[in-house]
Amino acid sequence: MGLTILSFFTAFLVVLFFTPSLIKVAELKNLTDAPDAKRKLHQRQVPTIGGIIIYAATLFSYALWLPTDDASDFKYIVTTTLLMFFVGVKDDIIGTAPIKKLIAHILCALVIVLMANIRIKSFHGIFGLYEIPYWASIFLSLFTIIVIINAFNLVDGVDGLATGLGFIAALAFGLWFLLVKDLVMSCLAFSLAGALMGFLYYNFSPAKIFMGDSGSLTIGLIMSVLAIKLIEFDRVSMIYPLTIITKPVLAVSFLIYPLVDTMRIFIYRALNGLSPFHADRNHIHHRLQDVGFSHRQTSTVLYAATVLIIFVAYLTQYLDPTFALLTVVGIAIILCLIPFYVLKKKSKTEAINPQLDNTIET
């Protein structure tokens, strides 16, 4: 446990003390994001390279406190996150075509799945399925990694949102791996959690710096590794009540908002004949703002919703795996539909009021 605490606070302090210097450098070199009335709600130039300090602090802390008795996955995690990090930095500074980023996602996923052998091997009773064929395991794992990477990239649209959601997920993963005595993965999760907690101080509204793609893509990749490791952790090494919780359901609950919003937005774009990577303002966090929520309120509401879903996932431990998954995802979808219902009702009210005003004037 001592190593995990050291991992957390080392990353936290690195980010807390060195981010101001990074902000100054970004402003001097004009590495900032300009306001955009169509999609970007900030009113001033904001540095966009915060991912540099997040990744540097995470990697530094993880390497420093990594248990030396088992580091078999370390080289694969480092090499893939480095690739994802540099792709993100390039995109933050000069831009990168979506297809090139997707190729990088696939390359990283292939290394994780084929070389590190970090892959989903079973459905754990969901839909009545357990062990799955090797080829199906490969494709499912690749799909999972790519979706999670893009999920964190897409939800980074409100001050502090991706940072806070990442912190909650990393902390949850870290605590779980600590309970099952996997210090290697626990140190990785707590290193990331510490870095994100430190960064949230500067990224919460009004944000002084954004994480950019260098942050969101790297966080997404680390989260995908943690999620698959949790799903495939040996049940024999687990303690009660962790042994009776459906692990895929728990992993999904940690990442629930990025996953639900990403799948919803991809389906929406596909139905409207748009590219999955087409930028718009149809995310759930945008709808919350349209209802009237501020950046702070939007982020806080989605933090609370995530914690609630994790609690629900814990309560489903005695349920059938399929029903547990449907319960967790179903409640998440219902929560996500509330802003759309409120916005629709608000639009109807605004449409009626002008008619009433005209009647009075007449």
Describe this structure as you would to a colleague.
The protein contains 13 helices and two strands. It has 362 residues and is mainly α. It has one domain (2-361). A two-stranded antiparallel ribbon has the order 1-2. It starts with a helix and ends with a helix.
Describe what is shown at a glance:
The chain has 362 residues and is mainly α.
Count of extended strands: 2
Radius of gyration (CA) equals 21 Å
In total, the number of domains comes to 1
Protein structure class: mainly alpha
Tell me what portion of residues adopts beta-strand conformation. Answer: under 5%
Distance between the termini: 74 Å
Return residue spans where pLDDT drops below 50 for at least 5 consecutive residues. Answer: 358-362
The order of strands across the largest sheet is 1-2
Largest sheet: 2 strands, antiparallel
Helix percent band: over 70%
Mean pLDDT: 88
Key phrases:
single chain, 362 residues, mainly alpha, two-stranded antiparallel ribbon, 13 helices, 2 strands, 70% helix, disordered C terminus
